[in-house]
């Protein structure tokens, strides 16, 4: 009973702290501002600065768009891709190539877009291993293709590409 009360108090304090941090900022459009104050009790200790705002705490507008694409892309991946390429992106040995740390994937974003749109048959080499299976064209919108590939490229130690709908449309209309 006592631990439960302590836990609830801790959660309440954490939520209050988050609210207090996000509601600061006055007339600066909701931006959080941090001021640095120094206090010393005597002249022998150097002044201590409070930690400055961590840039990871509040994502930039561009990062929020990427975060939204990652969420949408993960949903598409879970629905369409996970059966063959697995939740970890490791694929299935000798059957379905890995997307995680994939040299083949990272070499050419346009080729990856084309494979999702049009499918792929025939032998490919991924991370030194040969695969000779088929991937069918995926019935996805251009936005879904952009989102799922952005998710894949920003997961599992890939090259962090941000695939746009314009990229997908360009590849779609190239042939």
Note down, in words, how this protein is organized:
The chain has 175 residues and is mainly alpha-helical. Helix content is 47%, strand content 3%. A two-stranded antiparallel sheet has the order 1-2. The model is unreliable at 3-41 and 53-61 (pLDDT under 50).
Question: What's the CATH topology label of the domain at 61-173?
Answer: Cytochrome Bc1 Complex, Chain D, domain 2
* Sequence stretches where pLDDT stays below 50 over 5 or more residues: 3-41, 53-61
Residue share in helix: 40-55%
Known CATH architecture of the domain at 61-173: Orthogonal Bundle
End-to-end separation in angstroms reads 67 Å
Give the strand tally: 2
Secondary structure category:
mainly alpha
Percentage of β-strand residues: under 5%
CATH class of the domain at 61-173: Mainly Alpha
Mean pLDDT: 77
Shape: globular
- Report the sheet with the most strands, covering strand number, pairing sense and barrel closure: 2 strands, antiparallel
Strand order of the largest sheet: 1-2
Q: What is the string of helix and strand elements?
A: HHHHEEHH
What's the Cα radius of gyration? 24 Å
Give the name of the CATH superfamily of the domain at 61-173.
Cytochrome c-like domain
């Amino acid at each position: 009973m006592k631990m439960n009360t302590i836990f609830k108090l801790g959660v309440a304090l954490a939520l209050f702290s988050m609210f207090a941090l996000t509601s600061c900022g006055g007339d600066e459009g909701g931006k959080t501002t941090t001021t640095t104050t120094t206090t010393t009790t005597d002249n022998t200790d150097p002044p201590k600065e409070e930690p400055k705002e961590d840039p990871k705490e509040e994502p930039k507008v561009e990062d929020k768009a990427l975060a939204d694409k990652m969420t949408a892309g993960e949903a598409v991946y879970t629905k369409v891709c996970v059966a063959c390429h697995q939740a970890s992106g490791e694929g299935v040995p000798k059957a379905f190539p890995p997307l995680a740390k994939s040299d083949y994937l990272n070499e050419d974003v346009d080729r990856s877009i084309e494979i999702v749109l049009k499918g792929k048959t025939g032998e490919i080499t991924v991370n030194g291993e040969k695969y000779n299976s088929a991937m069918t064209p995926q019935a996805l919108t251009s936005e879904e293709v952009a989102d799922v590939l952005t998710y894949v490229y920003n997961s599992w130690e890939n090259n962090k590409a941000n695939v746009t709908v314009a990229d997908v449309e360009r590849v779609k209309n190239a042939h």
